[in-house]
């Protein structure tokens, strides 16, 4: 299986990010699972990911990435200029994560929260775990 993105299924910003990734992928690569789903919880357990982690999580192979590292690695598989953001991995992680943490901390206040996870459309349903 290719990369797996775990996301907050109740977060409007996270939902829009998943929709954006689906639209901008160079070719289908990622599978998705909300952190709240049974599949998401099982992956968290399987990979030994801290349960209190408030971040997007990217799983590739037997490794997982969080926060800005996950977001920028996702950009590598996007089309157009978006893939250039991958180069920001040269910025030290504490600086990158400072900005990521500000967005993560305020995402519900700025973008809102859902009562339940999104239902994927029929054409991409097979990409959700």
UniProtKB/TrEMBL annotation:
Domain of life: Bacteria
Pfam assignment, any one: DCC1-like
GO molecular function, one term: protein-disulfide reductase activity
InterPro entries in the cross-refs: DCC1-like, DCC_oxidoreductase
Name of this protein: DUF393 domain-containing protein
């Amino acid at each position: 299986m290719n990369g797996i993105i775990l996301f907050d299924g109740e977060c409007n910003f996270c939902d829009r990010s998943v929709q954006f990734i689906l639209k901008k992928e160079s070719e289908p690569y990622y599978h998705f699972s909300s952190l709240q789903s049974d599949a998401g919880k099982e992956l968290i357990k399987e990979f030994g990911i801290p349960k209190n982690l408030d971040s997007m999580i990217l799983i590739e192979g037997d490794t997982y990435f969080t926060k800005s590292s996950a977001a920028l690695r996702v950009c590598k598989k996007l089309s157009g200029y978006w893939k250039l953001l991958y180069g920001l991995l040269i910025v030290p992680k504490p600086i990158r994560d400072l900005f990521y943490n500000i967005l993560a901390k305020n995402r519900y206040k700025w973008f809102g929260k859902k009562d339940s996870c999104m239902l994927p459309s029929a054409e991409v349903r097979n990409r959700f775990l």
